[in-house]
């Protein structure tokens, strides 16, 4: 999967549009179409902002793997990445479809479960 394919797949998975990405980057809305057609590789200078928008590390966009990493920051401030199995991918897709308030509720619930498991 190419970098552009990954960008397009992540947009779809996160229910985002090319227009939203273009606006975030301050570019014309047809840029992603040009990138996918191979007309330009100008996306390379925007990789950091694209990764920020899609909430993935730049290293994933540039990697040869199709396995999507999880990039998390724990309360301790430790950052880690790991490969996503199918169950985690399904969980992420469900989470991404939630409203912001429901995401907050889900996160609170998961944190409570984690605390109980640590007891």
Describe the structure in your own words.
- With 119 residues, this protein is mainly alpha-helical.
- 58% of the residues lie in helices and 8% in strands.
- Strands 1-2 form a two-stranded antiparallel ribbon.
- Residues 71-81 have low confidence and may be disordered.
User: How many extended strands?
Assistant: 2
Tell me the strand percentage band: 5-15%
Largest sheet report? 2 strands, antiparallel
Order of helices and strands: HHHHHEEHH
Ends apart, CA distance between termini: 42 Å
Global Rg: 16 Å
Helix content: 55-70%
Question: Kindly state the mean pLDDT as a whole number?
Answer: 79
Structural class: mainly alpha
Oligomer: single chain
Number of helices: 7
Shape call: elongated
Query: Strand sequence of the main sheet, in spatial order?
Result: 1-2
Unreliable segments of 5+ consecutive residues: 71-81
Give the SSE layout.
Layout: H1 3-13, H2 18-25, H3 31-36, H4 47-54, H5 58-62, E1 69-73, E2 79-83, H6 86-97, H7 100-118
Antiparallel strand pairs: 1-2
Structure, briefly:
The chain is mainly alpha-helical and 119 residues long. The protein has seven helices and two strands, in the order αααααββαα. A two-stranded antiparallel sheet has the order 1-2.
């Amino acid at each position: 999967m190419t970098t552009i394919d990954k960008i397009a797949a992540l947009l779809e998975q996160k229910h985002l549009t090319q227009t939203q990405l273009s606006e975030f980057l301050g570019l014309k809305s047809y840029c992603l179409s040009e990138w996918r057609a191979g007309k330009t590789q100008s996306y390379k200078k925007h990789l950091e902002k694209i990764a920020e928008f899609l909430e993935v590390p730049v290293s994933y966009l540039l990697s040869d793997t199709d396995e999507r990493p999880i990039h998390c920051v724990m309360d301790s401030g430790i950052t880690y990445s790991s490969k996503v199995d199918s169950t985690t991918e399904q969980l992420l897709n469900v989470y991404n479809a939630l409203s912001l308030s429901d995401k907050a509720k889900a996160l609170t619930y998961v944190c409570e479960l984690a605390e109980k498991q640590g007891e």
